[in-house]
Structures are given as structure tokens and as C-alpha cells.
Amino acid sequence: MGKSAETYYAEKLQHLLEMQAAQRQNAPRLSAAGPRPRKAEQPRRTGSAPQSGADRAYYDGFRTRIQQNPQTVPRRPSSTGPRARGQTPPSREAQGHVSAQRRTAPRTESQWADKPREEKKRVDAYRHAAQGRKRRKLREILVTAVLMLGVFTVLCVVTYQLLFVIRSLDASGSSRYTSEEILAASGVDMGDHLYSFSSRIAQEAIMLQCPYVSAVDVHRTPPGSIAFDIEEEEPVYYAVFYGEIWEVSRTLRVLDPISEEDAKEQGLIKLKLPEIREAIAGKQISFSKTRSDTYMQTVLDALQSSDLAERIGLIDLRSPYNISMVCDGKYKLLMGDVNVIETKLRLAVAVLEDELFQGDNKASVDLTDLSATSVIIDNQLDLN
Fold first, then answer.
1. Residues 191-237: pLDDT tens digits?
2. pTM for the model
3. What pLDDT score does 373 carry?
4. Band of the pLDDT at 40, cuts 50, 70, 90?
5. Is 86 left (phi over 0), alpha (psi -120 to 50) or beta?
6. Among the three residues 232, 258, 288, which one is the final residue of a domain in this structure?
7. How far is 219 from 291, CA to CA, in rounded Å?
8. Tally of CA atoms within 13 A in the half-sphere of 224 that contains its CB
9. What confidence tens digit (pLDDT) does each residue in 360-375 have?
10. In angstroms, what CA-CA distances link 3 with 16, 62, 73, 149, 201?
11. 114 FRET partner, CA 20 to 30 A, in 88, 132, 325, 374?
């Protein structure tokens, strides 16, 4: 039969008290009378509680704690244990070693089976927490960026509405149009915003309503100043469009209507042009055949750089292979095609210096073949 818990702890306490008493007796004590004699060993009492008042009080308190907390009651010693066989109980170091072995006891299979799930739960919880923190941080950054963008946009709009307002308009460089006419043609008014209109659209509007204007430079000066620099073209030619005579610039832009008498008084050159597709004031002439633009511009540029420029009154450009000019109102120069047109013009100047052309006779000069230039005097020659 095993002992009861009360009997076990009574014996345990008695054993501890005996060990303390033995230690006190074995300790050397020096005094004037010499070492004190050892007390006689008292007989060992087992199976009963301590008899002294202090020991009895300690024992009662110890038993009360055991009864109130029965989980701390140790196992009953085995009948084959060291105390049952009369052996000395293990020391504190041995007990500590046993406790360490118990604490480091290997896990059971069920515990090892549960460990991966527990680890996975911890890892998943950590991952979810990290993702949550990352999402919150990203959301905060996004909200901050949107707020900053909104504030910046509002500031830009307010600044644009309040500061960039046109308070000064000016137009310079025109001799045919006043500043008010240029500004009215541009469509830009005081109080408009500085960047509320397109420079290209303003240029086209001015050139359409003011045909002599060939180029417009728009200068914006923040916070609210606009200046138009104007370049103009002079009429050099005239031609008939839709039954009406119009001035034509050096670049073949249609300018203003004019009478033939006024055109001759101004010394303008009459152009006989191929079939046109469109002729609008302020724009270049548009021809039905695209090749016409190239050869005609080549002939006109060569003539303007020639000594005959002031003596030519008519240029027939209706055919690219039968170009002709009327010089001094009485000589018809047959140029043929546009090849080596500069050389042909220089040769015409040399031929017309001959004394044969000093009178009032009309004549035609054939320059189509430079190696065989011919002159025919013909007073019945049609120069129109």
C-alpha cells in the first residue's frame, strides 16, 4: 500500500528538519570554553507530524496549501523506489538533471504532426499582416498623391484665371493696315486668356482678311501681353481670275482686285496661267496640275534675278513647253521649255542690245535652241 500525501509530506518535512539540524551540529563553532558538545541524536519519528510549535505551524500551512491545490501533489513513490528500498533519495543536482531531461523529452507523433499546421498558421498570419500593412501604406500614398495633384490643379487654374489675362495688344510692321485692323482680323480681344487661342489660327485669319500680309509672328509675354509682328508682300504680277483682274505677289498669292490701267501704271507683269483650281484672296493660287507650280515658280524666280525683270510686261505660262515673254512692249521672246532658263534670259539681254532693236519695229526672238537663235521682224506680231 502506498502512503497518503499527508504522511509523505510529513516524512519529507521531518527529513529536511533533521538534515538542517545535522548541518548545524557539524558546523565548527569556536568559543572561549572550546567546542560545544554535540547533542544526542533524537530518535527518528516517522508517520506523525512535528511536535514543536514552529514545526507544527509550518506543517499545518504546508498541508493547507496542498489541500487547496491538489494538482501539486506529486506521484506516490513506487514501492520499488529508493525510499522503499531504504536508499538515499537523489540529490538536487540529480533532480535538476531529471527535470531537464523531462523538459527536453522528445515530442510525440501527434505533436510533430500538429507542428507544420501551427507553423503554417503563424506564417500565414504574418504574411496577411504584412500584406495589410503594405496595402494601407499604398493606399495612404495614393490618397496623398491624389490630394496633392488636386491642390496643384486648383492652384494652376486659379493662377491661370487671375494672372494670365490679356491686358495689352499690339500689332506692328504693316504699312497697308492699321493696328486695329490687324487685331480685329486676329480674333483676339482684351480680357482673353494668354493661351486661349492658337497662333496658327490667328496667323491664317490675319492673312485671309489682310491679303498683303505674308507672315505673322505672335509673341506672348506673360502675364498678359500679346504682340503681332507683320510682314507684307508687294504685288509683282496681275492675272485674270473668274473674269476679274487681281494682283498677284512674287510667291503667287492672290492679293486685291485691280484694274488693268492701274496695274500697267504700277509696272505689274501680266501672267497668262494654266488652268487653275482655286484662287482665293490671301492664299496661293492652286492649279489643276501639280507640276504647274514647280515650273512656273522656276521661270518667275529666274526672271526676277535677271536684267530683263524691269522690261517684261507679259509672261505666257500656259504651257510648260512653250513659254514666252513680251519685252519692252514690242519684242516677243520665245523660251520653249524651262531648261536652262537663266542662260536663255542672259542671251536675250545680249541679243536685244543689237542696233537692230533700236527702232520701233516689232520682232520675235526664238531662244528655244541656243545654238540657232533667230530674230524675225514682224510689225503685225500679236503681243497680247
1. 888 888 889 999 999 998 999 998 999 999 888 899 999 999 999 99
2. 0.57
3. 86
4. very low
5. left
6. 232
7. 37
8. 15
9. 889 999 999 888 888 8
10. 18, 17, 13, 85, 115
11. 132
Please state, in angstroms and rounded to a whole number, the distance separating the CA atoms of residues 310 and 328: 9
Between the CA of residue 266 and those of 128, 240, 317, what are the distances in Å?
91, 17, 21
The pLDDT, as a whole number, for residue 325 is 95
Amino acid at 253: R
The answer for residues whose C-beta is within 8 angstroms of residue 213's C-beta and 6 or more apart is: 174, 177, 182, 206, 207, 230, 231, 232, 233, 282
* Residues spanned by the domain of 69: 1-22+44-92
Q: Do 243 and 220 share a structural domain?
A: no
Number of domains in the chain: 3
| Complete DSSP assignment for 174-218 | -SSS-HHHHHHHHT--TTSBTTSS-HHHHHHHHHHHSTTEEEEEE
Q: What is the DSSP letter of 109?
A: H
Same domain assignment for residues 10 and 87? yes
Q: Find out whether 217 and 259 touch, Cβ atoms under 8 Å.
A: no
> Does some domain include residue 130?
no
Q: Is residue 59 assigned to a domain?
A: yes
For residues 98 and 94, give the distance between their C-alpha atoms in angstroms, rounded to a whole number: 6
Domain check: are 270 and 305 in the same one?
Answer: yes
CA dist 241 and 247 (Å) reads 10
Q: Taking residues 136-161, what's their average pLDDT?
A: 86
Q: Three cell numbers at 33?
A: 570554553
Contact 320, 338 (CB under 8 A): yes
Question: Does the residue 28 lie in any domain?
Answer: no
Does residue 285 share a domain with residue 201? no
The pLDDT of residue 381: 85
Region label for 252, one of left (φ > 0), alpha (ψ between -120 and 50) or beta (otherwise): left
CATH number for position 198? 3.10.20.310
Q: What is the pLDDT of residues 266-311, one digit of tens each?
A: 999 999 999 999 999 889 999 988 777 788 989 999 999 999 989 9
- DSSP codes joined into one string, 250-261: TT-BEEEE--HH
